[in-house]
Amino acid sequence: MAEFPRVFDDKTAYSSPLGAAWAPGRVNLIGEHTDYNGGFVLPLAVDRVSAFAGRTREDQTVRLWSTHFKAYAQFSLEGLPETFDEQRANLPGWARYVLGVAAELTRSDIALKGFDAVVSGDVPLGGGMSSSAALEIASAEAYALFSDHAFSIGEKDATLTPIETAGLCQRAEQIASGLMCGILDQAASCLGQPRKAVLLDCRSLDYRYLPFEDPDVSVVVIDTGVRRELATSAYNERRQQCEEATQRLRDLIVQVEPENEQARSIKELRDVSPEQFERFKAQLPAVLQKRAGYVIAENERVLQVVKLLEEGKIEEAGKILWIGHAGLRDEYEVSCNELDALVDIAHEVPGVLGARMMGGGFGGCTINLVRNEAVDALRQAVEQQYPERAGREASIDICRAAAGPGHVVLN
Length: 411
Ligand code: GLA
Fold this sequence. Notes:
- By secondary structure, the chain is α+β, with helices and mostly antiparallel strands.
- Helix content is about 40%, strand content about 20%.
- The longest helix is centred in the middle third of the chain and has 27 residues, at about 230-255.
- It starts with 18 loop residues before the first strand and ends with a strand.
- Residues about 1-5 have low confidence and may be disordered.
- It binds alpha-D-galactopyranose (GLA).
- Alpha-D-galactopyranose binds near residues 32, 35 and 181.
């Protein structure tokens, strides 16, 4: 077995064995910006992971070496979560997620131990496959591994269930990055299963698996190569707009139907039916009308896609992805020229069943459901047309539905 790389320059004595912990990235078939509206999502974990390899230390220090950034980071577990803000300020972005998970675990009264580890992986960073969620969930697994059974993650008799772990890492993401994200990315990573997509109700957190293994169809992820700073502030603004639209719709409906219990208990856009929205939408400011209209329709689209996949009608399901993209572009307004270019290019390639932007928006990638025999044609079309339309190159990746997180003691 290969020795643990000597990336740390001192002579720390390790009493514990070498171990590794990992968690996958995700793609989302449909259900974008529905998670923080109490709605539905349909992601799958993919065969790309974020991973730690290292050993427990005798003290409360965490030292990390990122192979991607070729950089060290170090923080202390002492005094967390109170010391979080101060420590965060001195850390590079990637290490803040690892610190954030420690802060949330200690907030849950879990005692952690320090460790030294190499952080690596093959989830494209910032590319729309949720590299940060993969890093957070892998961090939780790493803490479980390196903290001498202080806690465990699992379905039965464990300290944290997968979905509780997802919730904890969602909070870690929020405090680490300032993005007031929903639970989609972390849940998708935690719940991954080979050849399965997962339908998650983001309100009840109930979920069920759907077979996702058509041997003739590939999941193709195309990265625009674009990352925009604006993404976090625009995301948080969308979230606020949804809250405002919810309140206004509830007030409008209750005014007309004061006895309507259902209307009085509207808390999230999930609670507003398409019929109610049609009746009252004209009274919303134009922007809120677009935002709420998109979310309410997108929830319906998730359920439609689930039904079609269960009936084996993947071609029909693909058509709904195009419609989802149009909603993200025109109503939710989180797309950008580069994402639109990729979706337009894909639309003209026979055998592409559906495509849409994926994730928060303003860059990142598109997801494409593609007949295997059409993958090369799609690749060629992107190579020929995208640089002209976007002034840069796009990268293409084929993903498979894969298992969730794990860890292993190596020696
Ligand atoms: C980001 C967030 C998720 C989700 C998506 C949009 O990936 O982290 O919680 O809201 O955007 O669907």
